[in-house]
Amino acid sequence: MPQPHPLDAMLQLQPQPDGSFVAHTHAGYANMVGPYGGATAALLLHSVLQHPDCLGQPLSLTVNFAGPVQDGAMHLVPRAVRTNRSTQHWVVELRQTNASGQEEITTTATVVTAVRRATFSADAVAAPTVPAAADCPSVDVRRAMTWLQRYDWRAISGNLPSVWDDSLHPTQSQLWVRDEPPRPLDFASLAALCDVFFPRVWLRRARIVPAGTVSFTVYFHADSAQLAAQGSAHVLGQADAQALRNGFFDQTAQIWDTQGQLLATSHQIVYYKE
Amino acid sequence: MPQPHPLDAMLQLQPQPDGSFVAHTHAGYANMVGPYGGATAALLLHSVLQHPDCLGQPLSLTVNFAGPVQDGAMHLVPRAVRTNRSTQHWVVELRQTNASGQEEITTTATVVTAVRRATFSADAVAAPTVPAAADCPSVDVRRAMTWLQRYDWRAISGNLPSVWDDSLHPTQSQLWVRDEPPRPLDFASLAALCDVFFPRVWLRRARIVPAGTVSFTVYFHADSAQLAAQGSAHVLGQADAQALRNGFFDQTAQIWDTQGQLLATSHQIVYYKE
């Protein structure tokens, strides 16, 4: 029997009688400590989308990384707080049992789903003109942290500095990226893709300092038809920062499909040390 | 006895024995239906900052407008879900009693507060070069919706179209704005200022369509010292959109102080009809 894709294995939810779910971290998405934050964000979104009461498709997702997620079992508690005619509002908690045997909240999320209708539509920012993914150098991640190996990376610009010399740099990066092994794009994998960019402070300063996302938001512009059309091809990602200030910087990101149509836009505020 | 500023009147909270608060909508911030969303966002943030357990200063705020807020009493229920050494995570519910006498959730928020330490700091986007507020034309809002009269507006660019002719326009606006009457800037008023921009879809299409914010996020780059230095002077605001798609558009915004230093960056996803 073929193994499921690591993302699908990670997203396996065991429904509980009270409407919550149990899931487990997956070794394939391991970060330095605990799982890759984008995978956790995908899981929180997925718990809403899998809920029998869920209506529509994702419109927005905000994930707050309140404390470290430990490897092992996770308790996902999605709650529909309001259902309107065309939107639905969810609050989600990710809880883990700590050493004292008590459940504590490691992560919270809010999710809005919506039933969308065709209207006037236009992208107000154009995709940057860049070489095709096949013409961009592949990034060798074979010796990198495990979660980085879950993606196929094609570098365009604003790559990791080759010399860490404390010189100052612009904060924008562009790259092509897809799941590895390839996997048809869906809302969960798109949410995870919005978080793949290395910390902007590393680029700005050509210096590696400890950093971790505190709050992460995704606005979904794509519907399931656009995701299906994209399939497992590389998406184009661009990330930048607006301010680095006293321990926290912001990151803005755009994800375009192969046709140059926005799939999602994303924002996060990130802790950094020094 | 002098009247309090309308914002301070709106932010008056009555502590309840269970740690929640009761507040009331204020006629000075009336929108077409219910209160101005920025005022509601300010109130949700304020309920956390006034909570006796609150540590540090605001870092991020996400407000989800789940249903209409009715004029009258509001029940604010902030809950600290996790307190770390330097960050604290809050979930807040705004509830109102409906016609059936039951409490229902109209609005949810998540707030992260942080104790910040001095580090390497740099703005990665420069404030645009614009004329001083005193040299920009004042916008006459005497006949506009009430909440618009709570601000003093100085137009720079990307103003409301003078002709609504369905012609297509860029989506960026720049303006100077401050509370009216003047009021020293604080975190609550800064949160409200992040939401003052008219819907980007009106500008893009030179057409007024129904629109309303669904989810709104503010990242605070300023600390209380920077707010105090700004006092009651006009702040510089800039707003833009990235995508308008099937009933929802996103809006990005930056708020700078008089010195051109970022105070906050903000994002929202907004419903629109047609």
UniProtKB/TrEMBL annotation, chains A, B:
Annotated Acyl-CoA thioesterase-like N-terminal HotDog domain residues: 29-111
InterPro entries, alphabetized: ACOT8-like_C (IPR049450), Acyl-CoA_hotdog (IPR042171), HotDog_dom_sf (IPR029069), TesB_ACOT8-like_N (IPR049449)
Domain Acyl-CoA thioesterase-like C-terminal: from-to ranges: 135-271
Superkingdom of the organism of origin: Bacteria
Pfam families the record matches: 4HBT_3 (PF13622), 4HBT_3C (PF20789)
SUPFAM superfamilies linked to this entry: Thioesterase/thiol ester dehydrase-isomerase
Protein name: Thioesterase family protein
Organism of derivation: Comamonas denitrificans
